[in-house]
Design goal:
The protein has one domain (13-421): 3 Solenoid (Pectate Lyase C-like). It is mainly beta.
């Protein structure tokens, strides 16, 4: 039975993370501790790969200060612990990845910890994780990867066949594919083509937790991306696919996609059969990205083709400011905080308790489904909520920047479009919505 199919236990990822820590501690009595340093002194291995090969399931590998020119492949449960990201460096120049946690070729892989490392200069992903469960990628610095990208041709030569839609970004800094209950926490992810990517080529990617990361200055693509891709030729036809029920919580996401087309956080089900539903974007700070702060796209839904599912998206309690306009068929008429664009209907989108400022349009909805926009502080001073599509938008109970309601006085955000309701509105800011650097709640 596959662990990544729908119907697996839906425990909270925070609980899974605590459980993983218990797993490591409980096995400490029987597990061995191996060591690595560049010289191989004091009975240690001189390469991380040699230590991984020698380790048994559950072992701890302590990696000393130094630089390691390796592509480390992990195929068993173990803890890979560096001396700190400032001093333990995997320099993967000329190699595919810095670290590959390979559950695709090692079914049921779980209980992997990767922490305390810098991973840099890989041709593709700095850290790639496939078909793995209950694992943690934490407190790493992942920078300057995706070196194999030919920017002019928008291609990435040599990517493995199971990565079906990565020609334009080489996989990004950290990439999860077909994973369940993997936590990516407190990493500094910068200067890659894109930051953190969750996709589904080799199976459903669900109930992962992306939290506390600083994702910034990844020039070509989004800071954090949830994208449904075509299935891999290596994957079982019996597996479900989709990017489902993932939690993107408490990250700082800034200045991504400035040289390309990247949002702060993107959720994408671009065409027939793509699935990215029940995802939650909560409590993030999203600033100065190339596309809107939160961007949702579907571009094709031909009659009779397999359905598209972008339903039940929750965007809650984020601070969003200074992001760019969307482009091409998903174009917004100005800079935007949130843009929901789809040809297929999207249902049960909930945009709640966010603070959005320094945008021409705070929230843009353009899809045939229905959306709820409530309890937000919409402080851009231009358009608070725009409905550019044929669906309905319930934009009641928002604060539009002044006590008299949307569009009534100078400095008060407005609403625009058909089938949009904004009354009743709030006469004062929502206290539960986050405050940004400028106060983020408008005049009291």
């Amino acid at each position: 039975m596959s662990f990544w199919r729908r119907g697996a236990p839906h425990a909270l990822n925070v609980i899974v993370l605590c459980g993983l820590a218990v797993l490591f501690f409980d096995s400490a009595a029987s597990a061995a501790t191996l060591c690595v340093n560049p010289s191989g002194a004091s009975g240690c291995y001189s390469t991380i790969g040699a230590a991984v090969k020698a380790a048994s399931a559950g072992d701890l590998i302590n990696i000393g200060t130094g630089q390691y020119a390796e592509d480390v492949v992990i195929s068993k449960p173990l803890a890979l612990v560096g001396s700190g990201a400032s001093s333990t460096i995997i320099n993967a120049r000329g190699l595919a990845n810095g670290i590959y946690v390979d559950g695709l070729d090692n079914g049921g892989l779980s209980g992997v910890l990767v922490t305390g490392l810098t991973v840099t200069n890989a041709n593709y992903e700095g850290i790639l994780v496939t078909n793995t469960i209950n694992s943690v990628i934490s407190n790493n610095h992942v920078a300057n990867n995706d070196q194999g990208l030919n920017f002019a041709a928008a291609t990435c030569t040599g990517l493995p066949a199971f990565e079906t839609s990565e020609g334009e970004d080489c996989g990004e800094g950290i990439h999860l594919i077909g994973t369940f209950a993997v936590t990516v926490s407190n990493n500094n992810v910068e200067l890659n083509s894109g930051g953190i990517l969750l996709s589904d080529e080799t199976g459903e990617t669900f109930e992962n937790l992306i939290t506390g990361n600083s994702v910034h200055d990844n020039a070509l693509d989004c800071g954090i991306t949830l994208a449904s891709h075509p299935p891999s030729p290596q994957a079982s036809s019996k597996l479900p696919y989709g990017v489902v029920s993932n939690n993107i919580v408490g990250n700082n996401v800034s200045r991504n996609g400035i040289a390309g087309e990247g949002a702060g956080i993107g959720v994408f089900a671009p065409g027939p059969g793509n699935v990215a539903f029940e995802n939650k974007i909560i409590g993030n700070v999203i600033l100065d990205n190339g596309l809107p702060g939160v961007t949702v796209h579907n571009h094709a839904a031909p009659p009779g083709a397999p359905g598209v599912n972008l339903n039940d998206l929750v965007i809650l309690g984020n601070y969003i400011s200074g992001n760019g306009a969307d482009v091409q068929d998903s174009a917004t008429p100005g800079t935007a905080g949130i843009n929901i664009y789809a040809v297929a209907p999207i249902y049960a989108t909930q945009i709640l308790e966010n603070t959005i400022e320094n945008e021409a349009l705070d929230v843009v909805i353009n899809n045939p489904g229905g959306s709820a926009v409530h309890l937000n502080n919409l402080l851009g001073g231009a358009v608070g909520v725009a409905n550019l599509g044929t669906g309905t938008v319930d934009a009641t109970l928002n604060y539009f920047g002044c006590a008299s309601g949307p569009g009534t006085t100078g400095g008060c955000s407005s609403v625009s479009g058909k089938a949009i309701g904004s009354t009743p509105f709030l006469a004062s800011p929502v206290p539960s919505a986050p405050a940004g650097p400028s106060g983020g709640r408008g005049p009291m």
